[in-house]
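2024-03-11 09:14:02 INFO receiving multi-entity request
2024-03-11 09:14:02 INFO entity count = two
2024-03-11 09:14:03 INFO echoing inputs for audit
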Amino acid sequence: MARRKLQEVDASSIADIAFILLAFIIIATTLEKESGLPAVLPQKTDKDQIKPPEVNERNILEILVNKDNRLMIEKEWDKTPDDINEYVVEFMTNPENSEALPRMDEVNEQICKQNIAILKSNYEAASLIEKGNITSQIEKWEAKLEAVKLVGPYRTVNKAATIAIQYDKSTSYGTYLAVRDKIMSGLNSLRDDLAMEKFGVKYGDLERIRANKKTDEDKAMIKAIRQVYPQKIIKLPAKNVQ
Amino acid sequence: MSKFRQNKSKEMPGVSTASLPDIVFTVLAFFVVVSSMKQSDLKVRMTKPSAKEIIQLDKNEAIDYINAGIPKNTAFGNTVRLQLDDDIQTNYLEIRRFIELAREERTPTENDKATVSIKADRDDVDMDVIDKIENELREVEALRINYSTQKESKRGGS
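2024-03-11 09:21:47 INFO inference complete, emitting structure
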């Protein structure tokens, strides 16, 4: 008895189907990834809570952009965005302990442990409101201690030091972002150098590792570097600047 | 005599296309993985500012987009308008509703990591507009933001 040969399904059209799917996906999606300058907005404050704390002139690096997009840094007019880098580096490191630049804090293991011990001993006696305050301070010192363990004793700007961007209402968005970008570039150059020295890797490369691929070690390194060179940029409320 | 003489037919065999679907499916899979769905079409004129120190957002984390610029369609006027999803808005209060609607569609953990990306035209938009947007965002506690930029080609070395 002649057995009938099993007939094969013709698979040649699967390629066509797959091509159509491919074409659809290519058209409907985009390869472009969303990128930009990240920022964190300050918490909402009550209007009547006003009175910003008095700040020492030396703790502020004032960058001002007027309505014609002219730039003033530390009261000097007609600077270019490229000058910002230099000012930021000087401001964040204060290499000669100058009186005009922010006071630098020395951070090492001993200081961290001392402060944590003092805070902990105060904790018991403190009132309920103060307790929350003390806990957050202990956390801050513990973060510094972690940083010291990774990068060794370091010098950092005191916590009041801030880079302030002042602008006019009609300053263009592009100029503002250019200024922000240059500040970050000054900061990142410092961070890169430190990371290169301590870990043999650039800070930017650490940061570029995709969020879900970062190991705990990567995260700890990023945190430590940020302790040494914190990003403290504020936007002052717009006012009319000539 | 020769060992290698073909003793079967002399016709050239056709190239087998059996593996073609596999190849195409592999390419397909690649595109599915690396690409993301297109955002809604821009209805405002947009030249993004350029910057060097940019960070790529993780596409697995939620991103809400706020666009600001002069509408392409002059029927909407020729001053700066907001575009939320597909709608052109004039009222900044709409931002609150937009963020809250977006939040309802996500879990609280996703919301904690959500970022608002501000896409604004670099020349047409002034800081007054940005301030207003940020104030609304602070009202609804959407504090993680991103100033959307295009990449500036790096000059020189590092």
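2024-03-11 09:21:48 INFO post-check: The helical segments of chain A are 12-28, 81-93, 109-123, 128-151, 173-199, 203-208, 216-228.
2024-03-11 09:21:48 INFO post-check: Chain A touches chain B through 52 residues (CB under 8 Å).
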